[in-house]
Amino acid sequence: MSLTTTVIITSYRRGWALQYSLSSLVNQSTYPDEVIIVLKPSGDNSEQVIEEFKEKLPVRLLIQKEGFVADAVEKGIRSATGDIILFLDDDAIAEKEWIRKYLTLFKKIDDAGGIAGLVLEVSLRDVKAGLENMLNDKKHPPATPHKISKLTTVYGKPLNIYKGYSSYVSKSGFLIREQINTRNQDTLILDVLLCGANMGFLRHVIKDCPIGKFFKGSRKGYSYENFLAYWARRKGFNTYSIRNSGNAPIVWHIRHKSRLTFIGNLYDRFWFSYDALMNYFRYRLAGADTSLSSYIIASAAFIRKDLCARLPALFYILATLPTYLKDVRAN
After folding, report:
1. Cα–Cα distance between 22 and 79 in angstroms, integer?
2. Residue 295 CA: distances (Å) to CA of 78, 153, 277
3. 247 by DSSP, 3-state: which?
4. Please, which residues have CB within 8 angstroms of residue 18's CB and are 6 or more apart in sequence?
5. Is the distance from CB of 9 to CB of 37 less than 8 angstroms?
């Protein structure tokens, strides 16, 4: 059976980088059936960049007038028509075989609801020096085996649906990675920590996920990918990551300090802390078997490592939680 693909790119203030992401899609060995760009206008010339690619790609531009990252993601998902939805950041560059590899993996792994490939760092200077060479380069670095780390804390226990996963949502709502050694690098790893810069989902598995509602109030949307993975798992599908550089879909992520996942100043740390501490309530509202006692213990351990950012984040959550719960339950 032939599977169709939709590539979703959410973009804000990234006209300078978007040209590289779209160029990498033009150069795919397997052409995308649809490219949806959800753009929050910022006056940075992104619209003109997109217009220049409309004759080269099956581009559909959706304008986001309000909301943040999770709202843009939901808007893209609801509009997608492909059997497989592939996510690419507006500052990420996909290798030439990126789409082909995802199609191969989804056809091969029957229970896969979501899959994530490798994300490699690259400087903007290197991108400008040779984008074409990067796209055709076959000398990718090998995947690095991960050391085993045992979790002994009471809040590190996984939700029941995540037993056997190398990373998972714990009963405290916090995301845990229990890294493993992988001698056979071709092995797909059961993983919930997917990366929005490079991941794919079966559309029918996540098309009804109200990600915007659950991340209401979040400026950064940290860990929205993991919530999508949970949505797939609660429907009986597994989510995987693949570390082998020969078989994994690969993207290069351009290094810069305005990335959403960059955690540097107090503002960034505050919103990262907000999302980490809010996850307990998100997963509980979504029906997960979370534990309040585990959350309290985990939160105390989490907050003391960065009091100036994490304690205000907790106070902010407590102040806004009644409205959040009312809004989520009402919709």
Report:
1. 19
2. 32, 12, 9
3. coil
4. 9, 11, 37, 46, 49, 50, 90, 91
5. yes
Which pLDDT tens digit goes with each residue over 235-264? 999 999 998 778 899 999 998 766 555 667
With CA atoms as reference, report the closest residue to 240 among 141, 111, 145: 111
Tokens of 98: 């990126």
Task: Give the Cβ contact number of residue 186 at 10 Å.
Answer: 12
Question: Which residues have CB under 8 Å from 267's CB, separation 6+?
Answer: none
Pairwise CA distance, residues 273 & 286, whole Å: 20
Residue 158 DSSP one-character state: B
**Judging by beta carbons within 10 Å of its beta carbon (0-12, 13-18, 19+), is residue 316 exposed, middle or buried?**
middle
Closest CA to 239 of 253, 225, 249: 225
Q: pLDDT digit string (tens) for 28-57?
A: 999 999 999 999 998 888 999 999 999 999
pLDDT score at 90: 95
pTM: 0.91
* CA angle, residues 140, 243, 245, in degrees to nearest 5: 20
Give me the residue label for tokens 């990067």: 134
Identify whether the C-beta of residue 41 lies closer than 8 Å to the C-beta of residue 109. no
The per-residue pLDDT for range 17-29, each reduced to its tens digit, is: 999 999 999 999 9
For residue 167, what are the β-bridge partners?
A: 177
Question: Which residue is listed with tokens 């997960």?
Answer: 288
- Tell me if residue 10 falls in helix, strand or coil: strand
Q: How many of the other CB atoms lie within 10 Å of CB of 293?
A: 11
